[in-house]
Amino acid sequence: MDCQGVIFSTHATARMFARTISQKDVEYVLKNGITIQQYPTDKPFPSALLLGFINDIPLHVVVAQDEDSTCIVITAYIPDAYIWDDDFKTKTK
Asked: How far apart are CA 30 and CA 41, in angstroms?
């Protein structure tokens, strides 16, 4: 995702802290991850679910992008292997 800047929502910051996910890791996924789902009708800005791998551990990042290409991180989490397919791109349940 091409971000001209990155803002972390209060929710994202709290969840990242609770899940021991670093800002650096989220920024890596923003730069190098792949989009696995788009949410074009999200408000106030369209958002997307990105997948990246940090030291072979999958990381999902939900991010919106405003009209100035600033990325707003909504949340980040390590996907549950019981809910996601082996590629962590598709939900099984």
From this structure: 20
Number of domains within the chain: 1
Tell me whether residue 85 is in a domain.
no
Q: Is residue 60 part of a domain?
A: yes
Question: How much is the pLDDT for 92?
Answer: 86
Alpha-carbon distance of 48 to 21, in angstroms, equals: 19
Residue 61: both structure tokens together: 């990042």
Strand partners, 53: 58
pLDDT digits (tens, 9 = 90+) for 31-58: 999 999 999 999 999 999 999 999 999 9
* Sign, CA torsion 39/50/27/75: positive
Domain membership of residue 92 (yes or no) is no
The pLDDT score that the predictor gives to residue 1 is 82
Query: What mean pLDDT is predicted for residues 7-26?
Result: 98
